[in-house]
Amino acid sequence: MGRLGLIAGGGGLPGAIAADCAARGRDIFVIRLKGFADPALSALPGEDCGLAEFGRSVKALKRAGCGSVCFAGMVHHPDFAALKPDLLAMKHLPRVIAEARKGDDALLRALLGAFEREGFGVEGTGEAAPGLLLGAGPLGALSAGPEQAQDVEVSLHAAREVGRTDVAQGAVARGGQVIAREGRGGTDAMLAVLPAASGARAGVLAKLPKPAQDRRVDLPTIGVRTVERAAAAGLAGIVGEPEGLLVVDREAVRETADRLGLFVLGVEAP
């Protein structure tokens, strides 16, 4: 595979992709989005670019010999009126703004299309870093038992319905009832306000891709903090769709889940 251009927003996912590529011997070049990308990515070959510096990003990627790009990390919905686009960005901006009015997924598809029109292939995280994808079955030592089966099913169904709103990707069920739906604040905000479980661990967090989303971008993600927050909320486990959920720092997630007594499970969604 050729050199990959990694368009890096905030959070730990871009670094995890970079590590997975390095482990497989693939070269990368990082476009570090100003104000979002982790400063640690400065240790990798790349360039710092603003959100509206599309032309600069494209030139840097082509100079570096990148034939394809991968989008990863958190980027807040921009205030288009405040952006100062370069010349190439101005060429694509009207289409991007028009799509942004339809929702986050439409905006992301418009951005992908802009790179494709400039001659790049677009790789999803699962293609660029397959080692991050959750597989089928339990990730660690624990799995869901018969007592969690209903919560698994209900939480998956609720997460799918949340995704249809193009707002978020997660939900929590306990006792066969939906007790929380993820909003724009994200998974951490949802888990922080969950009512505590009485007695043994109970309840399941499900995270699924949105039904209409382009799976090359914005797959749901969990990491060690997700497991710790789920444990603090008294949940019994976390479920996701095989190859539809990214696990950042897999071994640390496995160890943390086993230590705290939670299952992390890949299961087909209804």
Write a compact overview of the structure shown:
With 270 residues, the chain is α/β, with parallel strands linked by helices.
Structure explained in plain terms:
The chain is an alpha/beta fold and 270 residues long. It has nine helices and 13 strands. The strands form three sheets. A six-stranded mixed beta sheet has the order 6-13-11-9-7-8, sandwiched between helices. It has a five-stranded parallel beta sheet with strand order 3-2-1-4-5, sandwiched between helices. Strands 10-12 form a two-stranded parallel ribbon. It is globular and about 60 Å long. The two termini are 35 Å apart.
Task: Throw out a few tags for this protein.
270 residues, alpha/beta, Rossmann fold, Cytidine Deaminase, domain 2, 2 domains, six-stranded mixed beta sheet, five-stranded parallel beta sheet, 35% helix, globular
User: How many beta strands in the DSSP annotation?
Assistant: 13
Measured by DSSP, the beta-strand proportion falls in 15-25%
Query: What is the level-2 CATH architecture name of the largest domain?
Result: 3-Layer(aba) Sandwich
CATH superfamily of the largest domain: LpxI C-terminal catalytic domain
Please indicate the count of domains: 2
Number of helices: 9
State the major sheet. Answer: 6 strands, mixed
Structural class, please? Answer: alpha/beta
